[in-house]
């Protein structure tokens, strides 16, 4: 499984689709299709060197799809969960290293645990309850651990790409039966390569002048990946960016429907978004705001709402993500780096308090010449959220 392959075959964003090797486009499409199938509750087949695994998402699988999955299965299905969710279901302490204060993403947050699924638990309502910490605990039987099947990590990764809870009913599968039933098949390696492969396939698809209240010269450029996923946007706050010899201000902003559009007080995204535009418009070097379709630090809006429900029960923003089975931060900064390169920006002054963004962009080949703090006062509701970002994500305070 090569995470490095997309780097070796990296190409500048902006080239046309025809320039992409067909195999890479096919891989992206098959992952995107598989994620859509999972969202519909349909089983899909994951293939890897250790064998094939039929998988269905626990939060949406129907009784009919479970029967289909069992027809393809060569053994009794098991439930795959992320370690923190598995610990909660098993009512055991969180595995070492996963509950401790820790920064950002990382290997400690990877992993999967398999649980036995006796007949009473192989049922849509019980599976939803096993998958979702915000759902009522409706378990006719206490689950126990089972042996790990092949392709467990790619299965969890595929559920995350589908923005579903990383909880899957899985079983080793017979490929011929899966083909006969018309189940979609996807290579495990393509799932693991997907985030970088999608980012490096970005193409500029539309561009327009959009005068903003705080930035009358702004232009918006839309980028689309070859998988057909949601577009990411680059907002050039000043039409002269990049001005030769000057290093522009750059803000990497992840979509926040609640904060950006509705003015939610739970976070600081709205003030950060508008504040960044204002600040860039006043800067002699201008600025680029990247608006990434990576809602909820990459877990999606639905899971962010679930995380908010858990925060109302006392968890902080980081532990709420983990309770759902996600990492603290699931974003991919390749997208940002590719868009910056496409608009001719290789060196930036980054508007952020988050050290992971600096490290992430640098690792993707962008020179971060300086960091400028981008902090707004707490509003009486988001105080705990801001405090957690400083204490547990290592956010810089000045
Ligand atoms: N999962 C989750 N995401 C959240 C929560 N609150 C806000 N977000 C998301 O966090 C993202 C905003 O993060 P950023 O503005 O990039 O902030 P940051 O990583 O703290 O870094 P800087 O603002 O650059 O210092 C958006 O996608 C929000 O939807 C939360 O409680 N849980
Ligand atoms: Zn927000």
From TrEMBL:
Cofactors demanded by this protein: Zn(2+)
Binding site for GTP: 251-255, 272, 295-297, 317, 352, 357
The entry's keywords: GTP-binding, Hydrolase, Metal-binding, Nucleotide-binding, Riboflavin biosynthesis, Zinc
Main enzyme class: hydrolase
Keyword Transferase part of the UniProt annotation: no
InterPro entries assigned: GTP_cyclohydro_II (IPR032677), RibA (IPR000926)
Reactions this protein catalyses: GTP + 4 H2O = 2,5-diamino-6-hydroxy-4-(5-phosphoribosylamino)-pyrimidine + formate + 2 phosphate + 3 H(+)
Pathway: Cofactor biosynthesis; riboflavin biosynthesis; 5-amino-6-(D-ribitylamino)uracil from GTP: step 1/4
Residues at which Zn(2+) binds: 256, 267, 269
Active-site residues (renumbered): 329 (proton acceptor), 331 (nucleophile)
HAMAP family: RibA (MF_00179)
Physiological role: Catalyzes the conversion of GTP to 2,5-diamino-6-ribosylamino-4(3H)-pyrimidinone 5'-phosphate (DARP), formate and pyrophosphate.
Name of the protein described by the UniProt record: GTP cyclohydrolase-2
Species of origin: Falsiroseomonas oleicola
